[in-house]
Write a structure and sequence with these properties.
Helices cover 13% and strands 44% of the residues. It is mainly β. It has one domain: Porin. The longest helix is centred in the N-terminal third of the chain and has 15 residues, at 7-21.
């Protein structure tokens, strides 16, 4: 919550938010070895997380596909051990913001500006387990917060392909710790653009709950159908981890603890033709949240917060011999009934506000890659909603002077993959992406000038982010 925040809480939020919203996503060398396909078969630019149609099929298929003609269940464990199911990642960066942090308010052990950081070191387990099961598990250490945590988890304990009246129907089960981490389209939030972002720069406070509120700190069980490689339907639910499990995985419970199961539904339709593919889809998630405790069994005396998220997404991709063009779009509406937060706010301030609010967000991204080596991206992200003094109030850098969540950003990025292609040195185990990203804010946390009530302008948070991203 953004009420009565001290400096420590503000900085912790600014560090955590970009990691939740834009976790570096990967083309695992272990999957390339397993399938005996180059990383570029599954990923645009030979680097994750941007998936090709082949990559989406591999993911929906539960990470079970192999190469070399060895598809037997008896040989699968030996095969995945020989191929090496463990991969690693190192991400380092340089961050410059248009205006420095005020002295004493910068992230711990960093300068007020112009910082070099070791963003992440990650280990991955990515492998087929049997004919009908596979797994993707990431553990991450970040020097920015000096912490290790269990990152993205996408377990496929069961998947099977059936023929039903001449229709190919794949059935699967997913166990995950982040809503949308299992999603095969790069429009949604766990693997959506930007794929990397600075963890040292201020970011807007408002995000829909489905965009990262339960990232890494929840447990989800969903089942899905994939019909004729076109129709995708998935449904299930999520619940926040217990305090015991959160502590042991190094994660936090975000906006609060779920009271009961939070339903999650995903539908999509995709068509592929002549080196092109397009899809349109929808998402729904609803969660009753106790904002004051991580104890799922307790009841907040002031009530609960109810979040209802609806999203529509679409994508288009053209893959030629040299050129790949991708367009991704998603729009979300979140209805909020903040009885728990509004009650606590009213009691402590003596001022009564309503409990019903709305948050909207649109993301649009266009990307071009040449020979899977040189890439450019342009993205627009806008968030807006109702006056909300319950969640947003004045505070240095992270606050909103007018209690509005409105933010508007443009992101430009240029990437170079010097090696990581089929004919590169060390393929598929040596992969490097070098990139430069610039984020421009025309509005931040409700304002353009003095948006936080402490004299900071939206343009002060414009961010230059240069990174080196190594997978092996």
């Amino acid at each position: 919550m953004k009420r009565h925040l001290d400096t420590t809480t503000i900085l912790a939020g600014m560090i955590a938010t970009p990691l939740l919203l834009a976790p570096p996503a990967q083309a695992l060398p272990s999957f390339a070895a397993q399938t005996q396909q180059p990383c570029s078969a599954c990923h645009v630019g030979g680097f994750g997380p941007q998936l090709t149609p082949f990559g989406r099929a591999f993911k929906i298929g539960g990470y079970t596909a192999t190469g070399g003609g060895d598809d037997s269940a008896d040989a699968s464990i030996l095969t995945q051990v020989a191929n090496g199911p463990i991969s690693a990642m190192v991400l380092s960066s340089f961050t410059n913001t248009n205006s420095a942090y005020p002295q004493g308010q910068q992230p711990q052990h960093y300068n007020t500006n112009n910082n070099v950081a070791l963003d992440q070191i990650s280990l991955f387990y990515g492998s087929r387990l049997t004919d009908w099961a596979g797994a993707f598990v990431q553990g991450t250490y970040t020097d920015i917060s000096n912490q290790f945590h269990l990152d993205q988890v996408d377990l496929r304990p069961y998947t099977q392909l059936f023929n039903v009246k001449d229709n190919d129907v794949r059935v699967g089960v997913v166990v995950s710790n982040t809503p949308t981490v299992q999603d095969p389209w790069n429009t949604t939030y766990a693997w959506g653009y930007p794929y990397v972002a600075s963890a040292l720069a201020p970011v807007p406070a408002a995000q829909p709950l489905i965009a990262g509120g339960f990232a890494n700190g929840s447990l989800g069980l969903t089942g899905y159908l994939w019909v004729n490689d076109s129709i995708y339907v998935e449904a299930g639910g999520y619940q926040t981890m217990s305090p015991w499990l959160l502590t042991r995985t190094g994660n936090i419970y975000g906006p609060g603890s779920t009271q009961g199961i939070a339903p999650y539904v995903r539908v999509a339709y995709e068509q592929q033709w002549s080196g092109q593919s397009a899809h349109i889809g929808a998402l729904f998630m609803q969660a009753n949240v106790n904002p004051t405790t991580a104890d799922r069994a307790s009841t907040n005396a002031n009530g609960q917060d109810l979040y209802s998220d609806f999203a529509i997404d679409a994508s288009y991709q053209f893959a030629g011999e040299r050129d790949v063009i991708s367009i991704y779009a998603i729009g979300a509406i979140e209805e909020q009934t903040l009885n728990g937060s509004a009650g606590a706010y009213n009691n402590s301030n003596g001022t009564a506000y309503g409990s019903t609010y709305r948050l909207n967000q649109t993301r649009l991204t266009g990307m071009y890659w040449y020979q899977n080596t040189y890439g450019v991206s342009l993205a627009w992200q806008r968030t807006w909603g109702t006056f909300d003094p319950v969640l947003y109030s004045a505070a240095p850098i992270s606050g909103s002077a007018n209690s509005k969540p409105n933010s508007n950003a443009f992101i430009l990025e240029a990437d170079w993959v010097p090696f990581g292609k089929p004919d590169s040195w060390g393929s598929p185990w040596a992969n490097l992406k070098l990139g430069v990203q610039y984020t421009i804010y025309t509005q931040f946390n409700g304002g353009t000038t003095n948006y936080d009530g402490y004299g900071r302008n939206a343009s002060a948070n414009n961010t230059l982010y240069a990174f080196a991203w190594l997978m092996f």
